[in-house]
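re: ur question from yesterday

yeah so i grabbed the chain u mentioned. its 63 aa long if i counted rite. heres the sequnce exactly as i have it in my notes:
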Amino acid sequence: MSNPDRVVSEEDIRVMAQAAGISIPDYAMPGVMTNTVLLRHYMALIEELYIPDHCEPAFGYVP
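ran it thru and got these structure tokens back, copy pasting raw so excuse formatting
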């Protein structure tokens, strides 16, 4: 599992951005770093959920 409390460095963000083929302007970097930490926290919450292999379908569900 990832460590949501791990500090995200600017270099981490630049590496992920380069892998995704995007560039992040310097003025946006603080917000991107803050959002990355927040998203890692949400990811950790989701990873902790127990989701069984089989769930009953929702009764009367109509998409």
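noticed a couple things. The chain has one domain: 1-63. also The chain has a mean pLDDT of 85.
anyway ttyl
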